[in-house]
Request: fold
Amino acid sequence: MINYELFTLLPLIIISGAIFLIVCAIMLNCTTVINYTITIISIFCTLIITVINKNNTININNLIFINSHTWLFSVLILIISIVNITQINNWMKLSNIRYNEIYLFSLIIIISSYLLINTNHFAIILLSMELTSISLIGIINYKTNYNIISISIKYMITSTVTLLLTILGVLLIYNSSHNLLLITTNIVNNKQIYTFGLIILLVGICFKLSLVPCHLWVNNIYQHIPIPILITLNITIKLATFVILFKLVLYNLLNNNNNFIHIVMIISILSIIVGNLMALNQVSFKKLIAYSSISQIGYLSIGLIIAHYNNKFIPIVFSNIINYVITNLNIITIIHIINNYQNEKYDTLPLSLYYGMFYKYPLLTILLIINILSLSGIPITLGFINKFYTFLYISNSRIWWLMIIIIIATVISFVYYLRVISNTYKYINYNNVVNYDITKIFCIFYTVVFSLLQLIAGIYPNLLFSILENCI
Reply:
């Protein structure tokens, strides 16, 4: 293996080394500070190496397949992970929880997500998907009670079904193509079996992305997991899994197979409709995040289909992904900070918790509103730019029925997002004591920075698109 290939594999080597050190630290019963320091330094070093590797396109026996697209996904995953680990550490400190294994499981999720993004081999994909599921179950089981055990069992069953469907789809693909490559140039013996295998694989992916009709598991699981773990479940794992769908739609050998593309479109449209309708009457912020994420992934999938027919739309796809990551990361961070300010901690996060929030935490409320408006697609935000270009392409293609569906779904999303915003101005209450620590200051800082970048991208979209075109 030549030097630049070894340098490209350094991120995996660093994370693997950190996993070994964390295992040793747990066996030696080291403090949480040591485990946190090892974890955060390893992720930060991995991010630096990944950024340096920007111009390296590499294919190592199709087990590691890195190009400009996967590079950008990898950078996003690592940035998310730094924020996530910081919040998990803060949450354990405030809750008086000593569960050092959570750093081990978090690192395993990071390396599994990195492999999912940067591989072209189904064996690595299956292994990585299973590792993320097992590790997430380990993170959820930070204490023993009925709710935690219940959601762990539910997620384990869901993950088992996902793995079985994925294996069945891979077997059918292998039967017709005689290889285990996601992106292949081999001649397919039986296109019907190959397409059927892709569809079954798609069902397995839908479970991970909680797309319709595989979305029913999100209700209880989102409701009872701690707020920082929402970032792992709702952003990290979903983003890594979305890369598989990204490659299936844009790179696959049968990407001109209209049957497969039409099925993806139907699932995306149903997810947009069902996700928004189910979020409409929610009284819990966690459930609102769960169901709105279904519609958001549906929007991302629609963008993939548009990019399938027009490669010039790929920067818009990445812009959509960046908006999804930033808005969800900021919103979860804000509700995490606010929940920590309360004298009483709420596991279910009722929307009534945010009554009069503007008068107590004006800065956090403004940041929350900016990110909610970006999800809604209000002008001068990045979300508006993405929806504008999506509508522009659909109108140019004269797909009026799709435009009507997306407009109706967007109006529905306005209703429940505006309800959250209106709650922040109800019942003036000045009785609050805010104690800032270094972690909260860091969280507020990056939330402000990400929100400002989002507004800048909404006002000057060409700046973001030029950057994305240079990266991909």
User: Anything to note?
Assistant: The longest helix spans residues 146-177. Strands lie at 58-60, 64-66. The two ends are 26 Å apart (CA to CA). Residues 330 and 447 are 6 Å apart (CA to CA).
